[in-house]
Amino acid sequence: MGVDIKFAIASSNALKDEVYRLRYEVYVDEFGYENRDEFPDGLEKDIYDEHSIHVAGLFNNKIMGTIRMIMNSSIGLPIDEIGGKSFYGEKPHPSKIIEVSRFAVSSSFRRRKEDRVYGVRSYIKKSEGGVLPEGGKSLFENERRVKPEIVSGLLKNLYQLTRQMELTHWYVMLEKRMYYMLKRMGYLFRQIGEPVEFHHAIRTPYLGIIEEMDEHFSQNKPEFFKMINDGLVLFDR
To answer: Bigger pLDDT: 135 or 85?
Structure first.
């Protein structure tokens, strides 16, 4: 299956519409995160899309996943709507900071119903009160699933693209399940604010520092470090 998966920057209007259509299927139809009445054309998009780079995961040339990086512009970033957040370390010029959002995987590519919007299983069980044990470790230590290629590929390409463009920081608004999934994969984020209701879900603002992640990968996750630096596989479509 892996040889049939490709990743592309959505540079054409046709692929961008496929991205927006997939987001509509996931965020509107499937999970109800967004109001259907706001997207009568069946394309889920917002004012930040014109200032974003969209990465698409394709299986047999059919879009199966997407993620975007929102660039600095005159309209700012979605996270700017959140008050009370801080910054970790020295803050660079705004042009060096992006916001990562709209991570979605098609339901036809997910392995289980509980994989949710991100294409990975939710590790937060209702029977445990909706929270993970201290440190978020015990639910992961016995988990031996192979990570879906579409998910790891989207993140890998986004990370490499970030480094090629000499960007230094990621802002992200994450649900708890997404945060722990990324942590388990190896990504390092620092919490910079309290959880808030954001786009019809409770999300927490985090900051990813690319230099810090590189050091963390190389020292603590050498196999992951090798994988994530193994050639940029993006093409334009």
So the answer is: 85
Question: Which of residues 186 and 51 earns the better pLDDT score?
Answer: 51
Query: In 3-state terms, the chain is what percent helix, strand and coil (to 5)?
Result: 40, 20, 40
**Sequence ranges of the domains in the chain:** 2-125+133-232
pLDDT in tens, 94-122: 999 999 999 999 887 765 544 444 544 44
Tell me the β-bridge partners of 207.
171, 190
Query: Kindly report the CA angle at 172 between 196 and 198, in degrees rounded to 5?
Result: 30
Residue 208 · residue 172 · CB < 8 Å: yes
Alpha carbon dihedral 117, 121, 123, 128, in 10-degree steps, equals 90
Domain 2-125+133-232 = CATH 3.40.630.30: yes
Residues 213, 137 contacting (CB under 8 angstroms): no
Dihedrals phi, psi of 155, to nearest 5 degrees: -70, -40
What does the alpha-carbon distance between residue 121 and residue 137 come to, in Å, rounded to a whole number? 15
